[in-house]
């Protein structure tokens, strides 16, 4: 492959990975999609392609939509709560920052996207996050431009009432991390209680492969009792490491050099934690390194 054609793909690769991850909620699947897109690019008549970036984005989007149907069917049989695969975001590329991608990687936002149809999700992300024109989206999705506008409008309306992309100052997030750690390691929950919403929810994803909660816990009493009681016992031999995960401050829990859990949070406009997300599924942790 000529160096110029390879450069086109490498320049687009961070965006393709980000788009695929946002659509699919899986870094492993996103990397597979990027590889599939590269193979198609390699086999294409590149001299006949006027806009490589648009071609690559189209190929990536269509492959994601193909996969979405399979992933939705697989989640029907998923054991317990399904959460997106956690990804470290301490070193988000300049290209990703320019498209405000880091703000759209939060677990809460990715879960909200699950409410949308596949084409709504793709159209919304392409237009709102990746600044793609309606004309380009119409070509990618093989729809008329007015239909794409309707897709984005419906998606925006669906997300607007419940969108949770607010990130409080890092100092506030750091205070929550310390209070969360104290609740589990020392059973001291008072500080954490002041930082949690009254209706806080705790969700855990074990995928049926490790013991964890099968249903989310709701409310401060249930959540604090679980953290200071059962989780304090289960995580007694875990080591703690603070990390930037999915665009916010969180924890990687590890044992014997292996990541065994991640913890992330979502917040309301007052900076109170509304959700605690714990991923324990080893398949979703395999790509994380300390």
Question: Could you give a quick summary of the protein structure above?
Answer:
This is RNA polymerase sigma factor SigJ. Helices cover 52% and strands 15% of the residues.
Strand order, sheet with most strands? 2-1-6-5-4-3
Low-confidence stretches: 91-99
Number of strands: 6
Cα-based radius of gyration, to the nearest Å: 20 Å
Kindly report the average pLDDT value.
90
**Proportion of helical residues:** 40-55%
Order of helices and strands: HHHHHHHHHHEEHEEEEH
Shape: elongated
What percentage of amino acids are in beta strands? 15-25%
End-to-end separation in angstroms reads 35 Å
Put simply, the count of helices is: 12
Class computed from helices, strands and strand pairing: alpha+beta
Largest sheet, if any?
A: 6 strands, mixed
Pfam families: Sigma70_r2, Sigma70_r4_2
Organism: Halomonas sulfidivorans
Subunit structure: Interacts transiently with the RNA polymerase catalytic core formed by RpoA, RpoB, RpoC and RpoZ (2 alpha, 1 beta, 1 beta' and 1 omega subunit) to form the RNA polymerase holoenzyme that can initiate transcription.
Protein name: RNA polymerase sigma factor SigJ
